[in-house]
Amino acid sequence: MKTTQQTRSKPQTLSAMSRLLGPLIGKGYGRGMMLVGIGITVIIVAMSVLAPSIAPRDPTLIGLGLPNNPPSAAFPLGTDQYGRDMLSRIIWGGRFILLVAVAAVAICLVIGLPIGLVSAYKGGNFDRFVALIMDSIYAFPSLVLAVMIISVFGVTIINEALAIAVVYIPSYFRVVRSQVLSIKEMPYVDAAKSAGAGTPSILWKYVWPNVIPSVVVVVGMNFADSILTTAGLDFIGLGLPVTLPDWGIDLTYGRQSLPLGVWWTIVFAGGMILLAALGFALISEGYAERTNPKLR
Amino acid sequence: MGLRDYVVTRILLTIPMMMILLTVVFIVMRVLPGNPVLLRFEKNADPTLIATYTHALGLDKPLYLQYLDYLWGLLHGNLGLSMAGSFEPVAPEITSRFPATLELTFYAFIVAVIVGVLLGALGAQKQGGAADNSVKVFGILIYAFPVFFLGMILQLIFGVGLHILPVSGRLDPGVIPTSPSIAGIHFQTGILTVDSLLSGNLPEFVDAVKHLILPATALGLVISGTFTRMTRTNMLETMRADFVTAARARGLKERTVTYSYALRNAILPIVTIMGLQFAILLSGAILTETEFNILGLGTYLVDRINFRDYTAVQGTVVFLALLITTVSLVVDILYAYLDPRVRL
């Protein structure tokens, strides 16, 4: 009974927070997946943030060791073709790729969410028009669209984030829209309307908290896809400057030594990209299984 | 609604979709950056050179005229002129590059469907068990794999390590693609496995297949995760259907029930995601072609970007946009034909 009273006294914050965090607690389907995902992500983020203090050497210093030296006691992950320390490069290498992902997700949340909420709730021709535009972008090969935007506007962290956001906003729009379309027919929304609640307050108090779980799932995938797209852009020469320590760039340039049998640069740099994307994908999938019984 | 009405409505819906995509491309490539010639050259480049380029590419006209020219050109199969060399039209280059991309995506798609459907069916059959969990983990893990990274690993193992498969190009150097002839007419589809089979050139066919194995596997595996998940979910739903229970009640073997009754019905909805999967395949093909040095549309696009050849980039993107909308139209119609409920 106590909880019900609390819910009444502070409805929207408590319910929104509990919808967001609720699936994180307790046993049941998808728990293992989600926890492994959270573990991987926390480690990678911590490593990237703390890179300046935990990396043993300067990741950009050329000629620290012999070029293309296999893993050894002095260089646990070997050296790259310029004799740089791979361990330090791996520790530093997530900073930019993760920064792009954070910026892209932020842009998507700020733009994609409100459009989806309002468009679906208003309905009518406006909604049809927006949905048509979003569907057109959604159907387009995402990498091609991102490539087109970056090739014209130039390579910067913000442009990469913008390009990824443009590609991903339709995903947010579609998920939010389909949820809102069913939520707005619910009796409690009708009840709120007849009690005189205005559109903003209905959207914020009654619709938005119910959309949160599916948004979390999309955010997780958005992080994973953003990491993969950024690495892809690095790979085709539209990435950040090649002097930066970055997993995508190490993978791209490590490829030149592949015919020599130099596997370590490729495997460690590529493995980190894979792991980072996997961490977010696991969170997304586990969270989805916990909140959507159909997926079990 | 009959099939014909559905087809007509669907085609009518495709037109605004195409127009939106074409307009987005035009805005991003032409309107927002201003003059693409200025983007190509440094600011202090020779003004007469810039003027020549601007005029030759029709960029000195007002924007609305450029837009109309662009659409009018498309109606005639004109995808614009390249900025490189003597302003060659882009369209012939694209048509010569496209078969390589088509071939790669086709075989990758086959790999994805086979792996995805088999694993998905297995997971559903053993729901909750160790096999099911492994299938789930595979699905997510393979999704998180950068396709070019998977390609590099395959190259390391089968090319550099074991020396059993080629790691680059479409044919060994020295193997010249043959052009088949039917009723005395010589032609070339550019799809090497088809051309070599039609002209009965078995060594060329084997060589082409060898070159396709690694890239098609890399690209196909990365896409297969989606098929695995889709098949598994559909199978689980179908397994609960009455006709499956009825089949079981008649005493049929569990294997027969799973594979002949449930799977057949579970595969149908996979057709719906084929259109979207094609778009994802094309994104992956750009990276796979680059990794395996396949001269297809993807490598053409990357190549033109590195030369700052914005008009050729635009032409390629427009071609892909038209291709995608056409494919999703065909897929939707196919699905409506296969499943009458869609037309309701």
Describe the structure concisely for a colleague.
With 296 residues, chain A is mainly α. Chain A contains twelve helices and no strands.
The helix tally of chain B amounts to: 14
- Major sheet of chain B: size, sense and barrel closure? 2 strands, antiparallel
CATH level 1 name of chain A: Mainly Alpha
Given the helix and strand composition of chain B, which structural class is it? Answer: mainly alpha
Taking Cα atoms only, what radius of gyration of chain A do you get, to the nearest Å?
23 Å
Taking the alpha carbons of the first and last residues of chain A, their distance comes to 32 Å
Report the strand count of chain B. 2
Greatest interface and its participating residue counts: A-B, 46 and 51 residues
Q: Helical region count of chain A?
A: 12
How confident overall, as mean pLDDT of chain B? 83
State the fourth-level CATH superfamily of chain A.
MetI-like
How much helix, percentage-wise, in residues of chain A?
A: over 70%
Morphology call of chain A: elongated
Using the coordinates shown, work out and report the CATH topology of chain A.
MetI-like fold
Tell me the Rg of chain B in angstroms: 24 Å
Blueprint (SSEs and pairs):
The complex is a heterodimer of chains A (296) and B (344).
Chain A: H1 2-9, H2 11-21, H3 31-54, H4 86-92, H5 95-122, H6 124-139, H7 142-153, H8 157-183, H9 187-194, H10 199-235, H11 247-254, H12 264-291
Helix pairs in contact in A: 1-2, 2-10, 3-12, 5-6, 5-8, 5-10, 6-8, 7-8, 8-10, 9-10, 10-11, 10-12, 11-12
Chain B: H1 3-31, H2 36-40, H3 47-56, H4 63-75, H5 90-125, H6 130-143, H7 147-161, E1 181-182, E2 185-186, H8 192-198, H9 202-239, H10 242-249, H11 254-267, H12 270-292, H13 297-306, H14 310-338
Antiparallel strand pairs in B: 1-2
Helix pairs in contact in B: 1-4, 1-14, 5-6, 5-9, 5-12, 6-9, 7-9, 7-12, 8-9, 9-11, 9-12, 10-11, 12-13, 12-14, 13-14
